Amino acid sequence: MAEQSKITKWLQDKVFNPLEDKKMPVMQHLFEFQARLTKVVVIVALFFVGTFFYADTLVQWLRIPLQNMFVPGDLEWIPTDLPKIPFIFLSPAEALWQNLKVAALFALVLATPYILWEIWAFVVPGLHVQERRFVAPFVAISAVAFYLGLGFCFFFVLPFALNFLISYGVKAGFIPQISIASYVGFSLWFLVVFGLIFEVPLALTLMAKLGWVDAPFLKKYRKWAFLGAFLFAALLTPTPDPFNQCLMALPMYFFYEVGIISAGFFKKKPEATEEEETAAASPASKGAGALQPQAATSGHDDDYVGVP
What we know:
Layout (H helix, E strand, L loop, with lengths): L1 H15 L9 H28 L1 H8 L5 E4 L4 E4 L7 E2 L5 H30 L5 H43 L6 E2 H18 L2 H10 L5 H6 L1 H15 L5 H24 L5 H11 L1 H21 L5
Parallel strand pairs: 3-4
Antiparallel strand pairs: 1-2
Helix pairs in contact: 2-4, 3-4, 4-5, 4-6, 5-6, 7-10, 9-10
């Protein structure tokens, strides 16, 4: 215990004191972070218990895009012309491990609002009042955007990608036999990446609101963003084929363009405008100051007797 207290004191004196916050010591920030992280882990673990209980059902639900296409007009799935594809596993623990992965991902997805709320509660004391007004809605909208990305991928991207790739192999004369590990890894990775892709406009808008970037800056690097989208897609796609890269890169660049438009609407106000708003917000004080000389003048007029 003595050694631990010495280490803690050394960290506080030598490392954290230069970063000291006027309102809260750095060590207290770390303790708060530890407490909130513990709460997040507990909540995710509770969700994981429930999702693991229904892991087999979730895997079957994740299998729907494999041999079905979603029809938006009818709001229903229709089967494709692909032959029935059974799942196989190539190692004794593969099926159990995939159930754990699926349960863990769905637990994180279900706990996303609470995780974002804990992040917000941790950072809000360090924000100004003006920053809190727009950061709070961004935290809420980010959860909605992530869910929209998951839904878009599940209902549209995954069925299209799987149908194209498997049809190509079947027409080439190959027999489709997909291991549960490869399919779950492919599907979960696509879902997570598209959930993050839907956050791109929100991230660009937040950076524009904070003054880090603006619409002209984003337009200037539009070509590099297009190239970067394909580079990121090449790194993020679970397969090296250009088809999946295009499926991921084109939406990524599309949302970059959406972010440019949003950054133009929600750009940071210049300092002069903020000063003018502050001055306009207190006209009463100016009016009171302007009336004081008049009151003094009227007082002199009342005291003046005049020359007979």
